[in-house]
Amino acid sequence: MKVLSDIDVSGKRVFVRADLDVPSEQLTLRCTQGHLFEPEPQSRRPELAERVTIDPSTSLRAGSSQLAESIRLKSLKPTVDYLLQHEASRIIIAGHIGRPSFTKVTEGKPPLYSEELSTKQLLEPLEKILERRIDFLSNFVILNDSEGSKKRDSSSSTQNDNQLVLLENLRFWPGEVENDQEFAKKLASMADIYINEAFGNCHRNHASMAALPQLFTDVEDLLESERPRSRRPEGFHPRRAVGLHLEKEVEVLGLLLDSPQRPFIAIVGGAKIETKVPAIENLARIADWVLVGGAIAREFQISNFKFQISNVVVATSEVNDKDIDQESIGKFKQIISTAKSVVWNGPMGIFEEGFEKGTMAIAKAIVDSGAYSIVGGGETTEFLSSKELISPPAGGFSFVSVGGGAMLEFLAGKKLPGLKALQ
């Protein structure tokens, strides 16, 4: 699997599959501004499908101040900065929000369009994070047409400002979720290079994750094509790779599974029992202790499910079943205090309704332990961010994964389609 530094991006159009699926709670505030950076006159940018200007009187549901703090959005910055520093000619940022479904036909919009899930909402927060003006594409545009290239090249003063493009929610087109080859080809026509920076979606067998990267095959250097076959690989230039944060995700989680510092404690909470049992079982073979809380712990109790492995400790719940009880908190804290490395995915209670005692206690226990700590999952990181526990002085986790389900499947030992497609 190639990394970003293996790719020559100079003068190339780069498709960056980003992790834009921010928590829905962060998409409920009004956005009262448009671009942070003043756009060039429309007449000088004719190749763009749409320029975004947001009327202050409209409610486009973008809580920009919260979104600018989104861990998933911020994880994109190192890769974009690298591409800009290495003179990529165009950076197309693409991703999804939520799970769109058909409601009504909207003229001029993709089949599953809904304003509530449009990535247009992310324009302002991404501009804050990336410190660049970004253009918005509401539909597919082939960005290498000769006429458009000539017009862009005619104004060198706008070249840097014209480098970043945000594409509409990929899931507005059914071909994305269906992993449709023709849809992937349309996306591929927009770029020369593919970069995956969406670890949180790597477990999905979707077009932009699986079919698309496979279309970016290595290009042979024609000047070196006459070399003996044994030396031919030197003449091939890769066109797909992982982004900087995704590279770190694979490295950190891989080391955790292969050679963790011990005692190694794994903590799994939240709901979705069907996705978490495989991770718990695989972690139990590797970790010294696996601590299980949240809604899945209650489900285990109701079903009388028993793990056959003695190092799995399942919490008991408060009488309202919305948080783990004090006895479990005490037991978990004692085990965590011995840890040298910790991985955590999923809250201990329904903190959205105010039942946060268990989650808060576990978070503080991990920080106080001084262990090497990895945390992931949208709900967990959302809670920690709201309590300012991600970073010092109040908190401090060694690594924050942008993956929820993807992180669990990786920890379960499964092959993720988004990573497999890059091999």
Describe this structure in words.
- The chain is α/β, with parallel strands linked by helices and 423 residues long.
- The protein has two domains: 4-246, Phosphoglycerate kinase, N-terminal domain (Rossmann fold, 3-Layer(aba) Sandwich); 260-411, Rossmann fold (3-Layer(aba) Sandwich).
- Strand 9, helix 10 and strand 10 (289-292) form a beta-alpha-beta unit.
- It is built from 16 helices and 14 strands.
Summarize the structure.
The chain has helices at 64-67, 71-74, 77-85, 123-130, 146-153, 174-177, 181-188, 207-215, 244-258, 273-286, 294-303, 326-336, 357-369, 378-386, 405-411, 417-420, and strands at 13-18, 90-94, 135-137, 164-167, 193-197, 219-220, 236-237, 240-242, 264-268, 289-292, 312-314, 341-345, 372-376, 399-400. Helices cover 32% and strands 13% of the residues. It catalyses: (2R)-3-phosphoglycerate + ATP = (2R)-3-phospho-glyceroyl phosphate + ADP.
Descriptive labels:
single chain; 423 residues; alpha/beta; Rossmann fold; 2 domains; six-stranded parallel beta sheet; 16 helices; 13% strand
